[in-house]
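Appendix B. One record, verbatim.
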Amino acid sequence: MAGLFNKVRNKLTGRRFLVSTIRKDAATFETAVFRANFLYLPQGFRLRHPCLVKQTCDPQEAETLHRALSARLVSEYPERLFQEYSEQ
């Protein structure tokens, strides 16, 4: 897996997000969620301040997390979702 990238628009709030999963090194994958503007560019180009960052060691687990976040961001309140994943 080289990397995954999704553009997501939340139906409840109308906000836009970018969900990105990259390979950090040979054994670590990082999934990050960024707030985006109407062109799906990170707001203020703040790549240093994502809304959520999760690291995994398994490529299948990283892909599953990426797909789950992308799907849930469409229909759930973002703040609740970020809180849930940050507590895990």
